[in-house]
């Protein structure tokens, strides 16, 4: 077709409420029951074929009811990884030859399928497999993923329009090529939307992908792959391998055609990937693009002028929604003594104690369980360390119970030592430390908070004094890639608050924005001269 297409204008997908008695709630409950009754084979998908990986079996369970197995997956072996790499390379010429509009249509169709008939499936799978409440699943596996798919098309279309200027007699053009080779997408357990976006964004731009989801997210990843297929994604474009990834990386990171890594997860794993790519650098055809969004130690700083009601809600939601398992979760707060002792401490403690964590299929619960036994052990160790340290004092929670599910109570503790390891280490659970300071030490506390942790992902300032907002925002300019004024540090919306952090938190390539998409293109500059020179001499030579 000869046309310069425009693409549909994206709008953020409205969040549904699932109130008691609503049709949305009834349908979702039905799907929850259906999915919980199954025990799926959670296979790989390579060149469009589903087959079980060759390594040891891994049970995928409900974290809030760990005896309930949702499905079984297997660790991918070296030869499974090799098959996925081969499939990605074989599909590349077909996929990159397809016009952008055809590729975009597949992802726009996936968005519409997810907004409609697939919504309950992805939400139910995310609730059961990752222990998200209905609202946490809805903002992730429905709205954020729909937004990623639609906004990526919009931003990619704008990037394709970027063209150089031309002088008389010459036509200069950019050919926005996909990368030469394949992309390795490695994704975390905690967001179904991130897991889907990491392979989808490079694929939209014409790259083929080897995708390795987290085993603890494999249940919703399985349905995500089916969604892409239902939308018309050709075989081999996204090849999903299962398991822990160690053997997959042995093959993928050594492959000459590795063109990029799209990673979200812990800082430690990203540093391993970066280091290994560095060690292998002479093997590759080019320089692999390394995009990684990683851990955080996200802060809330309160000024004495802060609105206490807003601060209270932001701390509770920011720290305890999804059991503190958002990379953006508030895990350290700095609160002036005047606010703390005038009632904020008691109020926060009472609210934290009142939060119910339980089976997420009971819609009355505020939260579920932490993801697995490894996370549970990390949190219980942190709680023991905090309890045994004289500079810290538990104000609420502090207990955990893994008899039915991996439950860690919402925990609030005070710590007099603002450099304590609990203010620098990411635990990734519902554990919030508060450093209470004399009001006249505010500037000193902000300066210390700015760089005490190695991360720079999200952070919030609560203040009503405009001069304070101005000066603190300047001091904290590099302390967070997503910085909030009078709001919680979680809940970024695609297109509105492009997400990502710097320092140890990642490469800050802002998922769901053109900043990220541009990493998956390798422009070729074309100069065409209409009437080329026919004499090699210059006028000054006459
Ligand atoms: N900055 C962000 O946008 C963002 C978003 C979500 C999560 N996170 C971070 O992710 C972490 C939690 O997620 P997680 O527990 O899934 O992280 P993780 O680092 O343990 O795992 C991430 C992925 O890497 C895989 N992996 C581990 N070793 C590997 C290897 N050698 N080769 C290939 N793959 C390998 C895992 O199986 C998983 O798929 C937290 O640190 C959190 O802050 C960051
Ligand atoms: N984008 C999400 C966090 C993603 C990481 O887990 C938020 O803003 O809360």
UniProtKB/TrEMBL annotation:
UniProt-listed Enzyme Commission number(s): 1.2.1.88
Domain Aldehyde dehydrogenase, first and last residues per copy: 56-514
One GO MF term: L-glutamate gamma-semialdehyde dehydrogenase activity
Catalytic activity: L-glutamate 5-semialdehyde + NAD(+) + H2O = L-glutamate + NADH + 2 H(+)
Keywords of this entry: NAD, Oxidoreductase, Proline metabolism
Chain residue ranges for the region called Disordered: 1-23
Domain of life of the organism encoding this protein: Bacteria
Enzyme class at the top of the EC tree: oxidoreductase
Keyword hit for Transmembrane helix: no
This protein's pathway: Amino-acid degradation; L-proline degradation into L-glutamate; L-glutamate from L-proline: step 2/2
Catalytic residues as annotated in Swiss-Prot or TrEMBL: 293
Presence of keyword Oxidoreductase: yes
Basic and acidic residues bias: start-end ranges: 10-23
NCBIfam families in the cross-refs: D1pyr5carbox1
Family classification: Belongs to the aldehyde dehydrogenase family.
PANTHER family recorded: DELTA-1-PYRROLINE-5-CARBOXYLATE DEHYDROGENASE 1, ISOFORM A-RELATED, DELTA-1-PYRROLINE-5-CARBOXYLATE DEHYDROGENASE 2, ISOFORM A-RELATED
Descriptive protein name: L-glutamate gamma-semialdehyde dehydrogenase
Gene: pruA
